[in-house]
Amino acid sequence: MSSVEFRSVVKRFAVDDGELTVIDGISLTVPGDTFAVIVGPSGCGKSTLIHMVAGLETPSAGEILVGGKPVAGPAPDRAVVFQKFALFPWKTARENIAFGPRNLGVAPAEREATVRHYLELMGLEGFGDRFPHQLSGGMQQRVAIARAYAVRPRVLLMDEPFAALDAQLRVVLQENLLQLWTREGGTVLFITHSVDEAVYLADDLIVMTRRPGRIKRVLDLREVSARLGWRKRPIEEVMQDPEYLHIKAEVWRNIKEELTQ
Ligand SMILES: Nc1ncnc2c1ncn2[C@@H]1O[C@H](COP(=O)(O)OP(=O)(O)OP(=O)(O)O)[C@@H](O)[C@H]1O
Ligand SMILES: [Mg+2]
């Protein structure tokens, strides 16, 4: 179990006319094995926040701890899934998934077992030998998720992973991801612009302010989600629940305040 802890994190970027403060003092703990979803206005620093957890960017002040240890750069305990299908086009699905374990020195037999396991869990049996261009967008993103999981990360960072998919496919992948996460565990930080997706997936739903990004609110949805069995039901059904609609309206109101201030 790895928690993700932000301690007074500030991020500034150098721009032409000086400095741009993108993150302005974020303190937050995401407990281990939590599915945390981050929403907020465009440009409020969501991607920057997870790039810092990934070790791809460094905070200007404050620190980020994963499993109690300060982040000192990219490492396989944190895997990233981006919006754009970032697969190696010259490798098959199987080779893409095997890439991380191979780099970590996992023996071929175990590697093969891992690949098979995740191909199966993501519903990709029979597609392992295809190259990315021979797969649909949804399948490519499933390969990307399988590839991220294959290094057995403690933290999975997902930056709008389903934004490029059509609405129907998106629903299937949300359910797929939940099944995978329920089975494999880990801490997930998931960014989305879809409030529907956020309310359905989140244990903790984190609402950010507009830039400079701060935490506006954290909604703990564990109780309601468990009580109404959301994760065991199809999203289209959950979306009819009065409590779901109420929370969704509340989140929308919070986001709108940030857009109109
Ligand atoms: N390397 C960089 N140098 C300068 N400015 C940057 C850099 N990276 C991001 N920014 C700026 O920081 C701000 C926050 O960017 P970020 O991508 O984190 O926002 P976001 O919340 O993910 O937005 P979106 O919802 O549109 O994806 C933006 O104004 C962006 O232009
Ligand atoms: Mg972004």
What is the strand arrangement across the widest sheet? 6-7-8-3-9-10
Q: What characteristic shape results from the CA principal axes?
A: globular
Bound molecules: adenosine-5'-triphosphate, magnesium ion
Which structural class do the helices and strands define?
Answer: alpha/beta
**Count of strand segments:** 10
Number of helices: 9
Number of domains: 2
CATH architecture of the largest domain: 3-Layer(aba) Sandwich
- Mean pLDDT, as a whole number? 94
Unreliable sequence segments: none
Estimated helix fraction: 25-40%
Rounded to an integer, what's the Rg over CA atoms?
18 Å
Strand content: 15-25%
Order of helices and strands: EEEHEEEHHHEHEHEEHHH
**What does the largest sheet look like?**
6 strands, mixed
Present the secondary structure layout.
Blueprint lengths: L3 E12 L2 E13 L4 E5 L6 H9 L6 E6 L2 E2 L7 E4 L11 H11 L4 H14 L15 H13 L5 E5 L7 H18 L2 E5 L3 H7 L2 E5 L6 E6 L1 H6 L7 H4 L3 H19 L1
Parallel strand pairs: 3-8, 3-9, 6-7, 7-8
Antiparallel strand pairs: 1-2, 1-4, 4-5, 9-10
Helix pairs in contact: 2-3, 2-4, 3-4, 6-9
This protein binds adenosine-5'-triphosphate (ATP) and magnesium ion.
Describe the structure.
The protein has 261 residues and is of the alpha/beta class. It has nine helices and ten strands. A six-stranded mixed beta sheet has the order 6-7-8-3-9-10, with helices on both faces. It has a four-stranded antiparallel beta sheet with strand order 2-1-4-5. α6 (195-201) packs across α9 (242-260). The radius of gyration is 18 Å and the shape is globular. The N and C termini lie far apart (39 Å). The site of adenosine-5'-triphosphate has 12 residues, from β1, β2 and α1.
